[in-house]
Structures are given as structure tokens and as C-alpha cells.
Amino acid sequence: MAIEKRPWVDAIAHTTLILGVMVIAFPIYMAWVASTHTAQAMAQWPIPLLPGDQMLENYMSALSGTENSGTRGMSVYRMLAVSLISALTIAFGKIIISLLSAFALVYFRFPFRGLVFWCIFITLMLPVEVRIVPTFKVVADLGMLNSYGGLTIPLIASATATFLFRQFFKSVPNELIEAARVDGAGPIRFFFDILLPLSATSIAALFVIQFIYGWNQYLWPLLISTKEDMYPVIVGIRRMIPAGDAQTEWNVIMATAILAMAPPLFVVVLMQKWFVKGLVENEK
Asked: Measured between alpha carbons, how far is 95 from 158 in angstroms, rounded to an integer?
């Protein structure tokens, strides 16, 4: 059956996509433009729409973290390191715990297995904001304030990832399980030699999502971190904006914001193929 081609439909679709990209990309472009000008130029009206000649100075000033650099003495290097360690810990922690919990729910028989799954699944209705006060109390009592453990451990459990891995494991053919059992493979060997390789694309897709989730955390690190050397970069950017009538070094702040966007962008670009493949296979 021949499909009728309608050029005007393609033109509308491409125009809509281009406009959508422009709407999304314009704020990022303006942040980059602001990071290439002086603070005085960004305080005037109208603000510049074209790049300036202060890009290298602004980025070096942001990374230096000196008192007169606009970062209020906070080291962007340190903030980026805290964000990177936290995001990687959250991403790998969520994946490992979700894999093990899904493996137990699918391949082990124990009392109230269905109830356990629904208790895990129902936590999707309890976001961090709902349980933030008791969680903070527990973390504070354990002496985990201003630590990587306090930043990451309360966030590494994931009902969503557990549910996705459970659904994938249930789709594994029974013949493959029986063949592994005949070959003498125990549960641990079956998990590492068969399930993990089959789950590679799903793990990659979840890693991208969970890394960005961990990198963009704001509310929990804002509560748990009281020392500047434990600020992730998302919290640090907000701390750079002074209160009152003090001059805001928007050029340095925007340079820090561009630096903060670089690691998630690198992860998405590097793992784009695996990410898309993992989502498609999960849909199947």
C-alpha cells in the first residue's frame, strides 16, 4: 500500500521541532553569553545577546574560588567533586539494590512475597519531601550530617528501578532458567552470568536517569549540608547569590552554571545509544 507524502505536514512538524529546540536552548545560550561578559555589562539594560571577550577570565575566576571571584570563597572544583561522587553513588546504589531486590522477588519463593513487592511499589507515592523530616532526624542521630553517606544513602532506594527490573526478569524465558539449572548454575552464578548481561541495556538506561537525578538534587543536600565543603554544585550556585544589596556577579554564576551542566550532558551524549536502546527494549 502506497503512503501518500504530504510535504506540508513534514514542514509543520520540522518547524514545530525547531521552535521547541529554540525555546529550550535559548536560556542555555543566554547563560553562556552571560558567562563571557563582565558583571557590569550584565547589570545594564539591555543585556548583551552576543558573546563577549571575558569567557576565559570568568571561567578561571569561577574555578579559582577566591573571595573576590564572585563565588564567595567557595571552590567550584570541590562542589563539582561532591556532586559527581554523590551522583555516581546514588546511580550505582539504586541499580545494585534494585537488581538484587528484583532478583529476590522474581526467583525466590518466600512468604508474603507479593505483599513485599506492593510495599516497595507503594513507596512511589512517598516522595522525599513527604518523609524528609523523619529521614533528617535519623541521619542527624547517626552523625551523618555533612558526609557523603548522609547525602546519598537516604536516596539510593528506588521502587521504580525495582519494578522495571522485576518486569524484565519475569520476561526471561523459563527454558533459559531450566538450562542454567541443568548446567549446575546456582542462583549467584545465574545472576552474574546470565541476568546481568541480559540487563546491560536496561542498566545503562537507568544509570543515565539516576545519574541526572542524583546530580540535580537540591532540597535534600540543602538540609543535610551545613558546611561549604560539602555543598554540591546545584546548592553552591544558589549560595553564590548574595542577600541584600550586594552586587551579584552574574557572569561568574552563569559560568558555574555552565560547568554544572557539563557532566550530565557528557553522560547523556556518551551513553545516548545505550540509553535509547534500553528504553526501547523495556517498552518491548
From this structure: 8
**Does domain 76-283 fall into CATH 1.20.1560.10?**
no
Could you give the 3-state DSSP secondary structure of residue 46? coil
- The three cell numbers locating residue 72: 564567595
- How much is the pLDDT for 215? 92
Reading the block at residue 200, the C-alpha cell is: 546491560
| pLDDT over 90 at 36, yes or no | no
221 φ, ψ (degrees, to nearest 5): -60, -30
The cell numbers describing 9, all together, are 505536514
Cell 539494590, residue located: 97
Q: What is the identity of the amino acid at 32?
A: W
User: Can you give the three-state secondary structure of 117-158, one letter per residue?
Assistant: HHHHHHHHHCCCCCCHHHHHHHHHHCCCCCCHHHHHHHHCCC
* pLDDT greater at residue 34 or residue 246: 34
Q: Is 211 helix (H, G, I), strand (E, B) or coil?
A: helix
For the purposes of burial, counting CB atoms within 10 Å of the CB of 271, is it exposed (0-12), middle (13-18) or buried (19 or more)? middle
Residue 278 pLDDT level (bands cut at 50, 70, 90): low
Separation CA 19–CA 185 (nearest Å): 55
pTM exceeds 0.85 for this model:
no
Distance CA 166, CA 258 (A): 37
* φ/ψ of residue 104, rounded to 5: -65, -40
Answer for the pair 122, 57: CB distance below 8 angstroms, yes or no.
Answer: no
Span 209-230, pLDDT tens digits: 899 999 998 888 888 888 888 8
Domain residue limits, the chain: 76-283
Phi, psi of 49, rounded to the nearest 5 degrees? -110, -5
- What is the C-alpha separation between 162 and 116, in angstroms, rounded? 12
